[in-house]
Amino acid sequence: MERTERVILTNLCMIYNGSKVLVEEKVGKGADGIIFPGGHVEEHEPIVDSVIREMKEETGLDIEKPCLCGVKEWINEDGSRYVVFLFKTDRFSGDIISSDEGRVFWMEKEYILKSNWIWHMDGLMRIMADGEYTELFLDAANDWKPILK
Length: 149
Known about the structure:
By secondary structure, this protein is mainly beta. Helix content is 14%, strand content 42%. It has helices spanning 47-59, 121-128, and strands at residues 7-17, 20-26, 33-35, 38-40, 62-63, 67-75, 81-89, 92-93, 103-108, 133-138, 144-148.
């Protein structure tokens, strides 16, 4: 039995400072709204290095000690698995700078789910901010199944 599969690896990171979190406002690319910054893991790149690099590219911030808090994943139509490693950190330096990916800005955590959020931000908050779940998996019936901690 084959035990390998094609996988696309990505990351998101919730950078927080007290009650504020850094969000990115995506425009275009099939979705407009608020999400955490993130990106793809490059070939042979360590996962943690990828999130540090992506945060610098998308936010201008140098982050330290990102904590892996969960994953979000689904199976694409072509059969490949799409995995998003979910991190958070409150250790950063530098000034925020928006990128081509979208405008980045601080938002009070309590207002995130009252904003125009995208890509299952409600589930992501239950993992990254609340620690309620460790995984969100989209099953064959297109239902998101949260996996308890």
